[in-house]
Each structure stands twice: as structure tokens, then as C-alpha cells.
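Sequence, please.
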């Protein structure tokens, strides 16, 4: 069943990485521009971020296995709908719905892993395999996406999800009977989070186009919506963040790390295909130094976690990511681009594969009883917030001169911040 759970997450990640190399074809076919491609990415990540906490709560309330199966089936069906979208507006709607189903897959898969592997060592090994199998989407996605785009255009990248969903459902036929934890679900905070992310994305996008009046208005709306959402969440009978997690410092540290890692990762996946300006398949091959490591290295990361604990590989990962992103920025300024770019992408691959598996295990290990679904939802919601802001920022900045260098320098700086945030964190099991 571990294979099926991992393939489901593979499918969710594949939908992001496959689309990454389809940007130029999407621009030509619909037609649209870099901003439109950015919205095609952020429509998915915004919906995913806004609904992940809800997905975690549903997994705890209705049973992780039930939510997992329904969400996986819905993901495959809606992917086919995206493949036949006649225009950008329809595609954006489909991508948003796709993000909602993905929000059911991710936290329920983490809850299933926690139920299948109760012992910490077994769970660490399982998460390592889960990260490696799902991380293969990073390796396969850009190359497969590039091949599909050159063969049949951007629509083909969505068709691939349907057979994957069927395989997931076949591998996960067995019912686990995961314990349910009844919870009231309040829609207002979730809607507020979605509106806040949409306003923030609009503000960043408009600022990148130098539409300052609209950007200012959207920025003010973001602050107001954020304040209203926080206030509504505190008064809600079913808050986004359960009371048992509000003062859990290790868990919140993992949330912050996940946000920064996904910001940096999305910057690479979104910006490199547009900056390098090569064919879709060539871009996929260019990304291989990073994506192959993301698929292979988590197994070695698991050994580091078992020997040194989770904080050592997390620190190594942020350091490697900062160095790698800096090298990519340098590659975009000089004549040695292929060599330096490959070296930089290797550093980024080490960064992702050293940070994500241990921070997932760190968060789950510090989750109170009955809150693993909520932790999984919040963790992945924060990661998608990072992805949403990363894609929006890259899409906006790439429209200005030397924007390709700027987006990578900013991402490198944020990874340095992530490294500094690990200094005062306790080991798993403490709070």
C-alpha cells in the first residue's frame, strides 16, 4: 500500500512539474503570456493551499482511507477536464478544482503513513521511500512533460494523470480502518485563506507589471482579508489551527521551513523554463541535475536522519539550496551558463532532498495524538503558500530586465533565512 500512497502524491506533484515545461507552448496555444502561465500555476497552488487544512480535518473526521480514495478518483477525472479546456479561463477553473482534490490526497496520505507505520524508525523509512517515489515526479515530470508537449501539445500533460489515478486506486483497495476523530468544520476561515492568497497573488502580479494603483489596492485588500481571516479563525468552533498546535514550536518551525523550501523550489521550476528559452524537452533535460537528486537522495537522507536526527540534514539542505540558487543566478549572468547552471541545479536538488523528508518526519513526530491529519494539512498548506508566492513573484519579476537573476537571488536569501531559523529549534518530541 505504501507504493499506492506514494504514487498518489507523485501524481499531485507531477501535475506541477509537468506543467512547468509547458509554459511556452501554453503561451502560444491559448494564447496568453507569462502572467497567464503564472495564474495557471497559482490557481492550482492557491486552491491546494486554501483547502489543505480542510482536507486534513476531513481525513481526521471521515477517515483518511475514504478521503484518500475519493480525492484520488476526483483528481484523475478533473485532469481530463483540464485537458479539453477551450480557453485560459476554463483552464484556471479546472486547475482550481484540481487543487481542491489534491488537498484531499496529500494530508490523507500522510495520515495513512502514520497509521501504517507506528514505530518512529519504521515511519522514517516509510517517509524516505514515500519522498523518493513521490519525488520521482520531480525527475520524471519535466522530461515527460517536455516529451508530451512536443508530441501533442500542453493538453497531453493533463491526460497522464487519469491512468495514474486508476493505478493508485487499485493499489489501495485494502481498507485500513484508520481511527476517526469527530470535528466540526467551519468554512469561513478556509474561504478567508483562499481570498487572502488570491489578493496577495494579484498584488504581486500587478506590481511586476508596474500597475501600482491596482497593486496597492490588492495589497491593502490582502492585509484586510488576512486580519479578518485570523479573527474569524480565533472565534471559530473549528479553527484552521487546532488549539493543541497553537503553542507547538517544533511543528510551527516545520511549517516555516516547508514554506521557504517550496518558495525556492517553485522559483526554479517556474523560472528556468522561461529564462533558458529552449524546447520543452531540452528544458526538462536541463532540470535533471536537480530533479534526479530529488528522486534518489531522500533514501540517503533517511540514513542521515536515523544517525544524526532531522535537524542536521535540514540545515545542510538550506545551505545547499542557498548555494545552488546563487550559482543559478551567476549562470544567468555569465558565459559559462551550462556548466554553472548544472552545478547550481545540483545544489538545489540536494537542498530539496535534504530538507523535505526530515521536516515532514519532524512535524509528524511532534504532532499530538489525533492531530496528524491537521498537521499534514497545515504543513502542506504552508508549502503551497510558498509555492503560490514563489510562482507569482517569479512571473512578475521576469517581466522586467534582469528579472531572471533577481528571482534566484531572492530565493537564495530566503534559504539563508531558513537556515538561521533552524538554530533555536528543539529535537523531535519536545515542544
Amino acid at each position: 500500500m505504501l507504493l499506492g500512497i506514494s504514487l498518489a502524491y507523485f501524481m499531485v506533484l507531477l501535475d506541477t512539474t509537468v506543467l512547468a515545461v509547458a509554459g511556452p507552448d501554453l503561451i502560444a496555444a491559448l494564447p496568453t503570456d507569462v502572467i497567464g502561465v503564472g495564474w495557471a500555476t497559482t490557481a492550482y497552488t492557491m486552491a491546494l493551499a486554501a483547502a489543505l487544512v480542510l482536507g486534513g480535518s476531513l481525513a481526521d473526521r471521515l477517515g483518511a482511507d475514504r478521503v484518500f480514495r475519493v480525492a484520488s478518483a476526483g483528481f484523475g477525472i478533473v485532469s481530463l477536464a483540464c485537458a479539453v479546456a477551450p480557453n485560459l479561463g476554463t483552464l484556471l477553473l479546472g486547475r482550481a478544482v484540481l487543487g481542491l482534490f489534491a488537498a484531499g490526497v496529500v494530508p490523507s496520505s500522510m495520515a495513512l503513513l502514520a497509521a501504517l507505520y507506528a514505530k518512529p524508525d519504521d515511519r522514517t523509512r516509510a517517509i524516505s521511500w514515500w519522498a523518493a517515489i513521490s519525488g520521482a515526479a520531480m525527475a520524471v515530470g519535466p522530461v515527460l512533460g517536455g516529451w508530451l508537449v512536443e508530441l501533442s501539445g500542453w493538453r497531453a500533460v493533463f491526460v497522464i494523470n487519469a491512468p495514474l489515478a486508476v493505478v493508485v486506486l487499485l493499489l489501495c483497495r485494502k481498507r485500513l480502518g484508520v481511527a476517526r476523530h469527530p470535528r466540526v468544520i467551519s468554512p469561513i476561515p478556509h474561504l478567508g485563506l483562499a481570498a487572502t492568497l488570491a489578493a496577495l497573488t494579484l498584488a504581486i502580479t500587478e506590481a511586476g507589471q508596474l500597475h501600482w494603483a491596482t497593486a496597492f489596492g490588492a495589497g491593502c485588500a490582502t492585509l484586510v482579508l488576512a486580519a479578518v481571516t485570523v479573527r474569524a479563525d480565533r472565534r471559530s468552533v473549528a479553527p484552521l489551527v487546532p488549539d493543541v498546535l497553537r503553542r507547538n514550536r517544533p511543528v510551527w518551525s516545520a511549517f516555516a521551513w516547508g514554506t521557504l523550501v517550496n518558495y525556492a523550489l517553485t522559483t526554479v521550476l517556474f523560472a528556468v523554463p522561461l529564462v533558458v528559452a529552449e524546447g520543452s524537452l531540452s528544458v526538462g533535460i536541463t532540470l535533471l541535475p536537480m530533479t534526479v537528486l530529488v528522486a534518489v537522495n531522500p533514501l540517503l537522507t533517511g540514513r542521515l536522519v536515523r544517525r544524526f536526527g532531522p535537524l542536521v540534514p535540514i540545515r545542510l539542505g538550506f545551505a545547499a539550496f542557498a548555494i545552488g540558487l546563487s550559482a543559478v543566478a551567476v549562470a544567468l549572468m555569465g558565459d559559462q551558463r551550462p556548466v554553472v547552471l548544472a552545478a547550481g541545479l545540483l545544489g538545489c536538488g540536494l537542498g530539496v532532498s535534504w530538507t523535505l523528508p526530515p521536516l515532514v518526519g519532524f512535524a509528524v513526530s511532534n504532532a499530538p495524538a489525533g492531530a496528524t491529519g491537521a498537521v499534514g494539512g497545515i504543513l502542506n498548506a504552508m508549502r503551497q503558500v510558498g509555492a503560490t508566492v514563489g510562482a507569482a513573484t517569479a512571473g512578475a519579476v521576469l517581466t522586467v530586465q534582469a528579472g531572471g537573476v533577481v528571482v534566484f537571488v531572492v530565493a537564495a536569501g530566503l534559504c539563508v533565512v531558513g537556515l538561521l531559523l533552524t538554530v533555536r529549534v528543539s529535537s523531535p518530541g519536545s515542544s
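The chain has two domains: 2-176+238-421, 186-237.
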